[in-house]
Specification:
The complex is a heterodimer of chains A (99) and B (502). Chain A has 99 residues and is mainly alpha-helical. Chain A contains three helices and two strands; from the N terminus they run αααββ. Chain A has a domain of 39 residues: Orthogonal Bundle (Histone, subunit A), CATH 1.10.20. In chain A, helix 1 packs across helix 2. The two termini of chain A are 34 Å apart. With 502 residues, chain B is an alpha/beta fold. In chain B, helix 5 runs parallel beside helix 6, helix 7 packs antiparallel against helix 16 and helix 10 packs across helix 13. At the A-B interface, helix 1 and helix 2 of A face helix 10, helix 11, helix 12, helix 13 and helix 14 of B.
Chain lengths: 99, 502
């Protein structure tokens, strides 16, 4: 069992990821994520000074679409998979006052 | 195996074009095979019987009316269930999308339709394509048709299993780190991952956007050539799609490459490799050599595969790949919020953040949670440079290795996977062990290259062994031709598992 990531860090990452975790889950994840992060550390064996980071294998430049109107989803299509709707809006619990 | 499902896509297409077989007749033959074998294989999340019958009837009517037929007219094809279809459901084998009905169809699938194909069903996968065995599916565990106690590989395990068991003439899969090639190897079929940008990703549910590509799984190399030509091409709806013409891969595939130079990467043939697989690849290289190809040794130092005394594998490429893929996944999967679509967890929820967090906790399976959390971690303040940026630098070193290797050879030859299909449950306890199943395939995604896995034969236990041919960007034609050369010189092609033979 690795301690590269402790249980408080797991809870914090859970908050950042917007995923609720039970205590049992957090404990199990601390071990699993820690072992994987430790494995990631293997990259530190490599000297990467002066190497340009590569986010994409095929270096594409800005691709711009013409500013031409086209068909898009109707409100009913866009809302068809929503758990709750109110008229043409997505319905959610209160937002103001929440952290 | 009845006559029709024993045909390849190219053959069935010919039989439908001449009227020898009708599209409806072909479909019914496959539906009959599904009735018989699907209860053992579990390849499909959904068999689209009504949609397929309607489409097949339309194809037959078009032929009767003398209208021109597309190259896949009447061919029953399975589509991995992470590609949007405006019919049936698109679940990604996740609870969070269990009831999702996509409002539009992915470009690659639209291209199948335009070519006359009949989409017969949506194939099972590891949830959100995250896995190497299809055991991470929230729907079911797909079985390997060669041995139903074993996994089909993943994440396109449903696609590979249904082609292997002849429950579809061909299938589409997606490949982020090996998810087409590794299951193709495990199930004894052909699987091609095109060059990044060759096939539009529009309508493919995003996992690792700089790595994901759609490609075909087929019973032989000619079929892979045909399907790749159909689905490839520029698409303005995917800004990373390559704006260049598509070759007629099928017309070219039978022409051998003269003086083919095949590179064997030294770092891929270490103690980490199962000896049976190593011997199979060496035999394949020998056959190429006897047929006039030149075998050269090349080096991919940053993709090196090592094994420690306990047999634990390691590779820089694996670490690099998982950092990049998980970082991209954590960003892409932020869209599942219980608001716009997908599962909503709302019991006793007070506010919006709690709604997001509850919906995601209830909807995502354990592997998806791990990857989102690790990606969130590697992108978070204080760790971004140490992990994400470091991985992007290593990614360039990996790509540079390939560029240098292709100065000395036309294609690379290596195993697809370090082992043959493993048993269900064998690797589920340790996520890291499962990640290493991709050790031979992930560098190709990081470098954006095309790669094809074809069966090299069976191992001593009767399980299929796959070999991988890798080429420079946009060399699909060359790797397909090289793969077809192997089929011809070895005679190994169209392997059929026992289960589908009767």
């Amino acid at each position: 069992m690795s301690n590269a990531i402790d249980i408080d860090q797991v809870r914090h990452i859970g908050v950042l990821s917007r995923i609720e975790l039970t205590d049992d889950q957090a404990r199990e994840l601390a071990g699993q994520l820690g072992a994987i992060v430790e494995y990631f550390g293997k990259l530190n064996e490599l000297d990467t000074d002066g190497v340009e980071p590569m986010a994409h294998a095929v270096e594409t430049h800005n691709v711009l679409a013409g500013d031409t109107p086209g068909e898009s989803l109707t409100p009913d299509e866009a809302l068809a998979n929503a758990a709750a709707r109110d008229g043409d809006f997505f319905k959610v619990p209160k937002v103001i006052g929440d952290s | 195996m009845n006559g029709i499902v024993g045909l390849s896509t190219v053959e069935l297409s010919g039989a439908i074009a001449t009227g020898e077989v009708s599209a409806s007749g072909a479909l019914e033959a496959y539906l009959e095979a599904i009735d018989k074998l699907e209860p053992q294989v579990h390849a499909y999340n959904e068999v689209l019987v009504d949609h397929a019958r309607t489409t097949a009837t339309e194809i037959d009517a078009a032929r009767a009316a003398g209208r021109p037929l597309g190259p896949l007219a009447g061919i029953p094809i399975a589509v991995k269930d992470n590609m949007c279809t405006a019919y049936g459901k698109t679940t990604c084998s996740s609870k969070i999308l269990a009831n999702f009905k996509a409002p539009y169809t992915a470009t690659a699938v639209e291209k199948l339709h335009a070519a006359g194909a009949v989409v017969i069903g949506k194939a099972n996968l590891d949830e959100f394509a995250m896995g190497s065995s299809t055991e991470n599916s929230a729907t079911k565990a797909t079985r390997n048709p060669w041995d139903t106690a074993r996994v089909p590989g993943g994440s396109s395990g449903g696609s590979a299993a249904c082609v292997s068991a002849r429950l579809a003439a061909a299938a589409l899969g997606s490949d982020t780190g090996g998810s087409i090639r590794q299951p193709a190897a495990f199930c004894g079929v052909v699987g091609l991952k095109p060059t990044y940008g060759r096939v539009s990703r529009y309508g493919l549910v995003a996992y690792g956007s700089s790595l994901d590509q759609i490609g075909p799984l087929t019973v032989d190399v000619s079929d892979a050539a045909l399907l790749t030509a159909v689905i490839a091409g520029h698409d303005t709806r995917d800004s990373t799609s390559a704006d260049r013409g598509v070759e007629d891969y099928l017309a070219e595939v039978d022409t051998p490459i003269e003086n083919l130079r095949i590179g064997l990467p030294d770092e891929f043939f270490t103690d980490a490799l199962d000896p049976g697989i190593g011997e199979a690849i060496a035999r394949a290289a020998g056959l190429y050599k006897d047929a006039g190809s030149e075998i050269v040794n090349v080096s991919l130092p940053h993709s090196r595969i090592d094994a420690d005394a306990e047999g634990n594998l390691s590779s820089y490429a694996v670490a690099c790949y998982y950092i990049v893929a998980m970082s991209e996944a954590s960003s892409n999967l932020a869209r599942y919020d219980g608001v716009h679509y997908g599962h909503r967890g709302e019991k006793d929820v007070e506010g919006i953040v709690e709604l997001f967090s509850r919906s995601r906790a209830e909807g995502f399976g354990p592997e998806v949670v791990r990857r989102i959390m690790l990606g969130t971690y590697t992108l978070s303040s204080g760790y971004y440079d140490a992990y994400y940026n470091k991985a992007l630098k290593v990614r360039r070193l990996i790509k540079n290795d390939f560029d240098r290797a292709f100065e000395k050879c036309d294609v690379l030859l290596c195993p697809t996977s370090p082992t043959t299909a493993f048993e269900i449950g064998e690797k589920t306890d340790d996520p890291l062990t499962m990640y290493l199943a991709d050790i031979y395939t992930i560098s190709v995604n990081l470098a954006g290259l095309p790669g094809v896995s074809i069966p090299v034969g069976l191992d001593a236990g009767g399980l299929p062994v796959g070999m991988q041919l890798i080429g420079p960007p946009f060399s699909e034609s060359a790797i397909l031709r090289a793969a077809r050369m192997y089929e011809k010189i070895s005679g190994v092609t169209r392997l059929v598992p026992e289960i589908a033979r009767t």
